[in-house]
Amino acid sequence: MSKRKAVFAINWMEVDALVQGIHNNPHHILGMHECIDDLYINAYLPGAKVVNAIEASTKKKYTLVSERVPGFFSVVIKDKKPFEYKLNVRFDNGDEVTYFDPYVFEPVIDPIDISLFNEGKHYSIYEKMGAHPMTVDGVEGVLFAVWAPNADRVSVVGNFNNWDGRRHPMRKLDYSGIYELFIPGKLVGEIYKYEIKAKSGQVFMKSDPYAFSSEVRPANASRIVDISYKWKDAAWMEKRENKNTDEQPMAIYEMHLGSWKRPTDGREFYNYRDIASLLADYLLMMNYNYVELMPIMEHPYDPSWGYQVTGYYAPTSRYGSPADFMYFVDYLHSKGIGVILDWVPAHFPKDEHGLGRFDGTALYEHEDPKRGEHPHWGTYIYNYGRNEVRNFLVANALYWAEKYHIDGIRIDAVASMLYLDYGRGDGEWLPNIYGGNENLEAIDFIKELNSKMHELHKGVIMIAEESTAWPMMTHPVEAGGLGFDYKWNMGWMNDFLNYMKLDPLYRKYHHNDLTFSMVYAYSEKFILVLSHDEVVHEKGSMIAKMPGGYEDKFSNLRVAYGYMMTHPGKKLLFMGQEIAQFTEFNENAEVDWSLFEFDAHVFMQGYVKELNELYKTEPALYELDSSPEGFTWINCNSANTSLLSYVRKGKKESDTLLIICNFTPMEHKAYKLATPSGGRWQEIFSSDNNRYGGEGRNNKTVKQAKKAECDGQEHYISVTVPPLSISVFKKKIGK
Hints:
Among the domains are: 4-104, Immunoglobulin-like (Sandwich), CATH 2.60.40; 111-223, Immunoglobulin-like; 627-732, Immunoglobulin-like (Sandwich), CATH 2.60.40.1180. It is built from 14 helices and 38 strands. Residues 254-605 form the Glycosyl hydrolase family 13 catalytic domain.
């Protein structure tokens, strides 16, 4: 506690500033102060009737009086040295409280923290900002800290002070723009906000940008929580640190946590803990080894699916507490499943309680709407060039890795960050200092983010959702790249879906849509995605996109998924598409599990399950994903028959796979399929298998390669190619 000396204990101009709500250092006048040989105790408590200071050691009572300014109480204690005390306050409404005076404590955040934050280099700033339960000078309480450099006054408000901004004004720390206040008391579980008085005179309330938890929407106050948790995933974390995902299978199940399954007991959502076991069992059954969650950071609007974030440091309270979400991650790790989070540093919504115009000025965003607003999305754009804003975002990504053991971050809408003219016409955007459309500050932010993540959290995967041909996305920062580990292959997705939607009769005119992806397949490290974006807004679900009658739709979808799983690149499929759900994604309804009444959907689920198993157990499908040596065309020119054949290779020659896809409903008997070598070849997978809903026209016998030129190879086998099918062959070693 402080022992401050002053020539005059009470400066009535300061008291007036306090009353006017424009004093940004209330500790200078409030609390206990030495003046020569006397002590002054001052308190500003509007609505108080009786205020006493009670000496902790002797229980002696000193009565503070209010004479000159209503609500300002003071007492002079003669010939007394500083002592520890509590305030006992009785209010006009009859409420009575006793507590340690918040205004006797020295600043907790030190100058080193301030300097690092000012430079944008405080990568654990979340340990200082926000609301932190702690003990200071032996007193239990909560440290509140918020960045609002342009405010005239910031106060902490909550039920504990009747939401009265006059009760707990904060101290502005020198050289920082940070406001801080330690409030004694048992406040864990309480809700709070910051009341901010802008220089314009406007007074408003904001949620805490660094809050670890929030109320359940539509309420939006922040909540004080203790986020300590005893993790049990040490073995997982150690293994992850040394894992090379480039040479490992990544079968990712993308999902919206609130609408995968809904409880039947009247609750709106499952708790994180409840759904952990349900989801893990399902993912293991389906042979997925990663789950990617659409944003679980706090957001006010359900139909945004989490992509308009207001609480970047808070897992949404829709599904439980921070500890509940930690349990969710811990449990999935115990089952061998990695957790990837969608993250949205590209923009933020304009909700009144959020980051927009936070201290009455454009603080987190640009002032000029040509830089600071997305015209199509109605959201604000971050000012990546402001150190403290960049620090807020970089530290946030690191926070999810540090505190929640997240295994990957998928960054949404990267293209909108990279291009200053994204979604804008002529005259609607401002060029960079060189006259170009590249957002240089966003580029620097991305490089710093990826570099620090790889430095501080080895094994965490950084993924870009980027829809243009921006070069070197997944190349190291040191080599001039942006430093991502993987990029969503939006080009493949668009071409492939356009192809699959076509009536097979017309596919021969669009054969290039199938093969073009291999032209650039090794320019970046890719994840092939059939994501939520493709099954919403009247685009149709995956099965609904397929042409033909009922059975043809399922055959088309089987060959589509088969081609995806045997094409180079990691794999991602959105929930509901593994069971061929006909309806589009709807955040208000769970996956249409009722479809299991129909065999075709049961078969499709089994097909995806075994396709994932094939992918995970055949090294040729993942070991050389990022190397041209891992893929060879056998025949990519049979446009008229819409056939494709190719080879996938692993590190061992014995792992080589031969694949043929037929994208028409025409069967080919005794088809000469060129092989990369002689020997005996066995079909190990066929989408036309009866148990997947096919007709069973697969190749049931081992095929001996014949020596003769075929498609540029020296050998071939004679096979049956079922209509709308994929077949996978592997060389049989030994008898």
